[in-house]
Automatic annotation (TrEMBL):
PANTHER family: EG:BACN32G11.4 PROTEIN, ENOYL-COA HYDRATASE. Belongs to the enoyl-CoA hydratase/isomerase family. This is Enoyl-CoA hydratase. It is an enzyme of class 4 (lyase). Keywords: Lyase. The keyword Ion transport does not apply. The keyword Lyase applies. Its EC number is 4.2.1.17.
Length: 277
């Protein structure tokens, strides 16, 4: 596989892909159905986020949906129906291949070095809620609705890493309630519980997400990549292990030009101009 690609070389067909400077925007774009996922879009999202480790011109990713909604989860007719057919034909291997693919999408989002900012309006349910959960930062609107709907369709709340990740974001008890009941979490509640970093007016949501992305992209992006890596890897570490991992990460960052730039700018009473190296 190539060790370096350009963001412009990525040309997914099942969602919109836009790049402006160092910020890439992924827009789920089936607004007439509240942007559901299909087998194709699951796979393309997975592959796109995997390839981002080689797209060195992208520093931050914004993930959003078109038409006033984020994502309504798996398409009822294009995914749920075929899965029921597989169940009736006892095709366990096919069912497991699908659930592993959906989990691979979460792994790809968590594994790409770029911080991912989810801009969430309207429906954010099922697999859509998982995409939001897997992102690094979440901006929402008061009118949005977040729901982990799996038990409503006879499935476990344990889907795509939800039982591991959601409690770390909002706490064990709150996560348990959402995953057992499948109820909707309104925007203000989602912010109060810590799922959203903050609420934004719907008409300003995408601009605010891109503004935050631009601010991060203007910072020490190599250090941001290292921060994301440590945040993810340290979930499975003890405190002593984590302190050692962070000592190594910080020593690596101290070898960057950005570290020196920050010092010299401080000494000159100037604002540092980070370049990500």
């Amino acid at each position: 596989m190539n060790t370096k690609i350009r963001a412009a070389d990525l040309r997914p067909t099942s969602f919109r892909w836009e790049v402006e400077g160092p910020v890439a925007t992924v827009t789920l774009s089936r607004p007439e159905r509240k942007n559901p996922l299909t087998f194709e879009s699951y796979a393309e999202l997975r592959d796109t986020f995997r390839q981002l480790q080689f797209a060195t011109d992208v520093k931050i990713v914004v993930l959003t949906g078109e038409g006033g909604n984020f994502c309504s989860g798996g398409d009822v007719h294009e995914i749920i129906g075929p899965l029921v057919g597989m169940r009736e034909r006892r095709e366990m291997d096919e069912l497991l291949a699908f659930t592993r693919m959906t989990g691979d999408l979460v792994k790809a989002i968590r594994g790409c070095p770029q911080p991912v900012i989810a801009a969430i309006d309207g429906a954010c349910v099922g697999a859509g809620a998982i995409l939001a959960m897997a992102s690094d930062l979440r901006l929402g609107t008061a009118r949005s609705k977040v729901a982990f709907l799996f038990t409503r369709v006879g499935l476990s709340g344990a889907d795509m890493g939800a039982c591991a990740m959601l409690p770390r974001i909002i706490g064990q008890g709150r996560a348990s309630e959402l995953l057992f009941t499948g109820r909707s979490m309104a925007g203000e509640e989602a912010e109060r519980w810590g799922f959203y970093n903050r609420l934004v007016e719907p008409e300003a949501l995408l601009d605010e997400a891109r503004r935050l992305a631009s601010d991060l992209a203007a910072g020490p992006t190599f250090a941001h990549f290292m921060t994301k890596k440590c945040l993810h890897q340290e979930w499975s570490m003890g405190v002593d292990e984590a302190i050692e991992a962070e000592a190594q990460a910080q020593a690596i960052c101290m070898q960057t030009e950005d570290f020196a730039r920050a010092y010299h700018a401080f000494a000159a009473r100037e604002r540092p101009h980070f370049q990500g190296n």
